[in-house]
Queue: 2 jobs
Job 1
Amino acid sequence: MVIDAGAGPELVIAGAARSGTSFLAAQLGAHPNIDPGSVKEPNFFSRAEDRGVEWYDALFSPRERGLIRMDASVSYTYPQYPQALSRLAATAPDATVVYVVRDPVPRAVSHYLYYRYYFKRETAIDFGEALQRNDLYAGASDYHRWLVDLRATFPRERVLIVPFRAVTAPGAEVAGRVCAALGLPPSPEPDSDAAAHQNQVVTFRHPALRLASRKLRRSRLYPLVRERLGASRLRRVRSLVTKDTSLPTTAEALSSCTPDQVEQLRELERRGHAAVSEALREQDLRLGLSWAEHWSAPNSLP
C-alpha cells in the first residue's frame, strides 16, 4: 500500500508501547509547528488502512509550509503487523522515526495489564497464560527484531532510539532533540500538562462506560470529538469515568510463568538489552548524546 505522499507524516513515534510514548507525544504535540492530528494513534499503516487515505488525511490540518504531521501509533512495531513499517516507509521515506524502549519484561507486563484491566481486550487471567496465547507482549518487546527492521527500512539518520528513562527525566531533552532533527527550534513553552498524558492503568467505573468509550473510539466521529474537546479535556473526562485499580506487581505477574517462559523472557532481555546498548552507543557517538547511561541492565527476572 502506498498512499499520496502529501498525506504522509514527517514524524512518527512507532513504539514501543508502554514506554512513555504518550508523554513524549504530548510534549511534541504542544509545539506550534507540529500537528499531532485529531487522533494520537491512527494506526493507519497497521490496521486501519481500510478506512482510506481521505480518512487519514482528514485527521490532520490542511497542509501548510512548516507544519509537521505527527503519527504516534505504537502498533507499527507490533508483531501482528509485520508490514506496517514498510508501508509507512513507502509513503513517508524521509520521516523521522522515534522508537522508545523500556526494560523488555516490565514493558511486556505493563502492556498485558493495560489490555487486561483497562481495555478488557485480554481474557487471560494471568501473564503466563497471556504469553502462551498471544505473541503481542513478548513480540513488542523484541527490540533486536524491531531495530533490525527499522534500520532496514529507514536511513540510520532518520531513526532516533530513546530509552524510557531519558523520556521521563526532568526537562525536555528528548523533545528538544526530536525538534532539532526536524529542523525546528524547541517549543517555547513546554507542555505543563504533559505528565497527565502518562497512561496509568485504571478501570472504568461501569462496564457500560467502557463499552461507550470503545464504540466512540471506533466510530468516525471520534476524530471530530477529540478535536473539539482537545486532549486535555478528554483526559479530564477519562478521570471522571475511571478509577484507580489494584494491579499485580511485575514480580507477581511473572510468578504465573512456567520455567520455559522465564527462560524465554530471559533470552528476550539478553537480546534486547544487547541490541539497544549497541544502538545507543553508536547513536551517542554520532549525535553527541549520552543516552546510553539511561539504559541499564534489566533485573526483573530472578
Job 2
Amino acid sequence: MSAAALVLPEFALIVLGVVLRRWAWRSSDFWTQLERLVYYVLFPVLLFRTTLAADLGASGAGGVLAAAVGGTLAGALLAAVVRWLPGADGPTAASGWQTAFRFNSFLALALVDGQGTAAVALMGVLLGINVPLVNVLAVTALARSTTERAGRRGAGVLRAVAGNPLILSTAAGLLGNVAGLTLPTPVDSALARLGGAAVPLGLLAVGAALRPGGVARGRRLMAAHLGLVKLVAVPAVALGLGLLLGVAGEQRAVLLAFAAVPPATTSYVLTAGMGGDGPFVAAQTSLTTAAALLTLPLWLSVAESGG
C-alpha cells in the first residue's frame, strides 16, 4: 500500500503533463524549453546540493553501484536477442534496443525525493555512473545501423557525455563533499528552492513528452519483449546482484527505484536525430511508461519487504 502511495502521486503529475500538453499549453516549444530548464538547471542543482551534503562513508555503496551497472548491462544483453525475432528489421531493432536499458532520470529521482538526502545523493551517483554508459551504448548501436552521416554524429558521443549536466553536477558535488565545502546559508537556501522545483516540473515534462501512438502490428511482439526486459528483467537482475552483494534497507530501495523505472522519453530525441525509427521508440517509451504504473509498485514493495 505504501509503495502504491509513493508511485501514484508521481504518475498523477505525469498524467497532468499529458493533459496540459494536449488541452492547455499545446506549443511544443514551451515544453521543450521547460524540459531544458529542468535538465540543465533544476536537476543539476538538486544533485549538486544533495551530493555535497551526503555521507559518502555509508557502507555498501559500492555494492549498489555494481548491482545497478549489472542490471543495465543485463538489459542490454537480453534485448540484443530481440533483433532475431520474426519480422524484426535491423534499424527498428537497433532504435528500440535502448528502451530496454535506458532509464527515466526524472522519475527515478522523484521516487527517492522523499527518502532523505542520502537516498537522493545515492541516486545521483547511480545516474552519474550509468548515464554515460547507456548513452555510449545507444549512440553506438544507432550509428552502426543508420547512415554514414549518423555515424559521424556518433563520433561526438564522448564530448556529449562529458558535458552531461547530471554527470557534471554529481561530480562537482562529490568533489566539494570530499573537500569539505560548506555553502553559505543564503546560497544553500536559494539552491534548495531551485532543487525543490525539479521533481514536479520534471514529471510534468515527462508527461508532455509521451507520444501514445500505437505500435504497428508487426512490431508489437518486439515492443512487448523490450518492455518485459526493462520492467521485469533489469530490476530482477539488479535485485539478485544486490542480494549477493549484501545491499539492504534504504540502499535496496534506491537500487530498485533506479532499475525499475521506464526508459527515458529523450530516447526519441536521440533516435530521431540519428535517423533511426523515431515513431517506434516514441510509442514504445510511452507504452512502457504506462505499464510501469503496474510494475513499479510491485518492485518497491519487494524493497520494503526486505526482498
